[in-house]
Records
---
Amino acid sequence: MMTEFRLHPQLQNDCIELAEFPLCKLLLSNDSQFPWFILVPKIIDATEIYQLTWQEQQQLLNESSLLSELLMQTFNGDKLNVAALGNMVPQLHLHHVVRYKSDNCWPAPIWGKLPTITYSNEEIEHIKSLIIPKINEILS
Amino acid sequence: MMTEFRLHPQLQNDCIELAEFPLCKLLLSNDSQFPWFILVPKIIDATEIYQLTWQEQQQLLNESSLLSELLMQTFNGDKLNVAALGNMVPQLHLHHVVRYKSDNCWPAPIWGKLPTITYSNEEIEHIKSLIIPKINEILS
């Protein structure tokens, strides 16, 4: 019996699904304090990058670097934070957080620091309009 | 005039140099509370992974995954945290932190959480004896 990949309920709850890359789902973390995006490889039971096949690892890197460049160009950040942590949610996921020297956590990492401030629907639509056309262009 | 790669003074101060991979220097972060290792690509002025050439990116991934597997086998961790942050030290470096559900920060990320407890010389020699022969085997 085939088992289908399913997004972890915590990620489903905390994020908005934006797009599908060949390997990963692209999520927007629903915290308006940071441009914070997450790639989730659609591989069942993956928890660590090194456990993926070499081909999957390369594809993850490829999608991560495409996304990284797009985010830094779009949001004009001072620094990008890229991290695979997974202490709370074991399903392998790769954070991409655009950081500004003026943001409320700088220079500390953002995780677990501030109470979440969720986006309005309008703000989500705005971010989608900034990101999704560029991703479609890259993927086409 | 050629300019030579130099390790950032902060990394030099906070870490012990353990080994040289083809692309990266391998450092041990001098905080005995966590098995915490750092890869620093020997590329001048690199700050973000996506800015490396595709060949360098693949090599970084390769070295990171080799190291990740070796660390998880050696230290028998519950989870590995892999992160490129760089908010404090702009020189591109990739953290690899073996995490335990019993460690003093779990499940929070470790950065900036606890005052450093440096290793004794004996402890450093012990970690070198655990890691360096395995790396030499992989690289030979």
---
Amino acid sequence: MRVQIILFHGMTLLDMVGPTQVWALLPGAELQYVAAAVGPVQTDCHVTISATHDYASAWRDPDILFIGGAGRPTLDAIANVDLIGFLADRGARAKWVTSVCTGALMLGAAGLLKGYRANSHWGTRDQLENFGAILSDERVCIDRNRATGGGITSGIDFGLTLAGIIAGDNVGRMLELLLEYNPAPPFGTGHPSIADRETLEHTRALLAAEYAPES
Amino acid sequence: MRVQIILFHGMTLLDMVGPTQVWALLPGAELQYVAAAVGPVQTDCHVTISATHDYASAWRDPDILFIGGAGRPTLDAIANVDLIGFLADRGARAKWVTSVCTGALMLGAAGLLKGYRANSHWGTRDQLENFGAILSDERVCIDRNRATGGGITSGIDFGLTLAGIIAGDNVGRMLELLLEYNPAPPFGTGHPSIADRETLEHTRALLAAEYAPES
């Protein structure tokens, strides 16, 4: 199974690492990290991660094409014609076209979600309509060969779900145990539908500031 | 808040990225990635991440000292006198001495868990007794200024819990919403106490093979 993971400047590291960690443990999986150039790519955790391939040397027909999201750097990514062109090209041949968080906006910008149900981070989901997607609020949204997760931490549920579909539920069950995925969120505020009003208002304000036009 | 994150060859990437992603979003947090040398460090996801500091240039008194775990490379890490010596030195002054997964074995090897309750990945927890720790099966185990998480994905619960203690519960609630941490494990097998017998037996066999002596 050939997994092609796209890196870009300012990416939210956990969006990518959640599913990648699951797939890296799959027997027979090969992982390829692709950016405009081989070498370090800055993430939002003040650390760089290294692309192993550039657009020219990346597999032409991966089994899984995957891109995670970001905060404000999402705006640059969806306007980056090289990145979006690469996604459109590989997405036309990949067996699975997938994303977590605002990575869905990049798939959308590449024309890959037209007529498909899709999800993104709860704070950005509505924007998927601009790309012809049908909005979904499923934490792991699968429509034919498109698989799009919700925000950041949903990548673990998303990665395990896809691993189960591809490698079988018995493998999925083992991976979930190996990853000790028996979560216990300390605050119980992890979705707008369960958060208290004050937390929701403050977090909405924070997201609005993140995406506000520069003055 | 100065967070010192230790990198080592073969590390399990998600162990580190779970809490790091939480802390990177904390207002005023500074993150430093430390290894024997500045530059790329291989992870278990077939990708490298770059240390920003070496042992000599790393903060002498971090607020949080953190190390994640690994599979088999754990054995090399606990036998690495430079790494363990560095942990012992910084651990003596850090406000918080912390780990996820088998990172606890490294803290133990550095003498930092003697007489403290601590946890590790469920498959390796028993080994903490060799280092004088008191075994705990709490997903996030806090005893005075020692905070040790369980296996791999526990790092998100661990990171959020510590963020709440340090920055206040209102910040913790916002981060949990921002990270959309409303988990939905697809298989319900994420801990030995809830996994079916076949999944548990196969996963135990897989871990035994991972840690078996080389022939």
